Amino acid sequence: MTHRFIASPKLTFATANADAKRLQAMLSKPQPGVIEIDLSKVTQCDSAGLALLIEAKRGAMARGLQCEFIDMSSDIRHLAEFCGVEALLMSV
Fold first, then answer.
1. How large is the greatest C-alpha to C-alpha distance in the chain, in angstroms?
2. What's the pTM?
3. Which among 59, 54, 67 has a CA at the least distance from the CA of 4?
4. Measured between alpha carbons, how far is residue 25 from residues 61, 65, 71 in Å?
5. Backbone torsions φ then ψ of 59, nearest 5 degrees
C-alpha cells in the first residue's frame, strides 16, 4: 500500500516543525507499504527541510516502510549534496 505525504511549499526553520508533526502523525499509525514524500510543491528548502527529509526516511525505515521522494527539485538535490547528506536521502 502506498501512503503519500505532501510537503509544504516551504521547508525551512520557520515551517519545518509543522510538517514534522504531520509526518509523525502519519508514521505513528501502523501501516505496511511505501511512504511517498511528495516534494512537488516545495519552492524553498533549507537545512531544517533537509533534516525533516532525513528524519522521514529514518522514521519510515524504523517502522519497516520504504520511503520514496517524489518530484525532488534539483535545488533540493544540490543543497543535499552541498551539505553532504545526499547519500542519506537517496539510500534505500
1. 35
2. 0.89
3. 67
4. 15, 15, 22
5. -65, -40
By percentage, how much of the chain surpasses pLDDT 70?
Answer: 97
Tally the residues of the chain. 92
CA 7 to chain centre: 8
Torsion, Cα 30 34 73 14, to 10 degrees, reads: 0
Dist. CA 67–CA 33, nearest whole Å: 9
Cell 520557520 locates to 14
Task: List all residues 6 or more positions away from 30 whose beta carbon is below 8 Å from its beta carbon.
Answer: 63
Q: Per CATH, the architecture of 2-90 is what?
A: 2-Layer Sandwich (3.30)
Q: How far apart are CA 67 and CA 61, in angstroms?
A: 7
Where are the chain's structural domains? 2-90
pLDDT digits (tens, 9 = 90+) for 20-59: 999 999 888 877 788 999 999 999 999 999 999 999 999 9
